[in-house]
Amino acid sequence: MKIIGLIGGISWVSTADYYKLINQGVNEKMGGLNFSECLIYSFNYADIKKNNEANDWDATFSMLLKGCQFLKQGGATAIVLCANTMHFIADRLEQEIDLPIIHIATATAAEIKKQGLKKVGLLGTKFTMELDFFKDKLINQGIEAIIPQSESDKDFIHTTIFEELGKGLVTDETKKRYLEIANRLIKEGAEGIILGCTEIPLVIKPEDLAVPVFDTALIHSNAAIEFQLS
């Protein structure tokens, strides 16, 4: 079994999900008392959020590079960034650390392609929705991503990710608004919905929508398992 390194704390909620999903997945495939051999470097989310809001991605890069180096020194043979937004600097990190980074958007694009979909809705932080790092991986597979057009909708998603979901808080009101936003994207032609923030599965479940739902945390965890056991 290959050792993998998880960069977490962005947020701790999704990091716990990754740890659980990866260990459960390894055990399902190997049985017995076999579980994932992994390392975790968990950040203080407040430091990451402060950098990103100031558009200081170099500072965030330096922080994550330190974490990746720590994991590499511990024996990790690949890195898993336990958050969608952090993949904005994934390619740069991969080049610097000289280890493969299992890319969440690449794995998600592969799953969407398996279902033959050409147009999907993308929900996530404003960074994930508005920057190109996630959408470009989809385009490479012939998949178009659409995002909410309303600034109030984008602001709502972004704010609740940090102020509610990232703390493990879920309300009926927030869930209702998320579903309304997702259904508007479906009316605009989305054949599936990407939960492009690892906390959004707290409020949107596959059974909530009439189209396929792509849980990026689950997809990413499965890609990590596949690498680990390859």
Automatic annotation (TrEMBL):
<dbReference type="InterPro" id="IPR004380">
    <property type="entry name" value="Asp_race"/>
</dbReference>
<dbReference type="InterPro" id="IPR015942">
    <property type="entry name" value="Asp/Glu/hydantoin_racemase"/>
</dbReference>
<dbReference type="GO" id="GO:0047661">
    <property type="term" value="F:amino-acid racemase activity"/>
</dbReference>
<protein>
    <submittedName>
        <fullName>Aspartate racemase</fullName>
    </submittedName>
</protein>
<keyword id="KW-0413">Isomerase</keyword>
<dbReference type="InterPro" id="IPR001920">
    <property type="entry name" value="Asp/Glu_race"/>
</dbReference>
<dbReference type="InterPro" id="IPR033134">
    <property type="entry name" value="Asp/Glu_racemase_AS_2"/>
</dbReference>
<dbReference type="Pfam" id="PF01177">
    <property type="entry name" value="Asp_Glu_race"/>
</dbReference>
<comment type="similarity">
    <text>Belongs to the aspartate/glutamate racemases family.</text>
</comment>
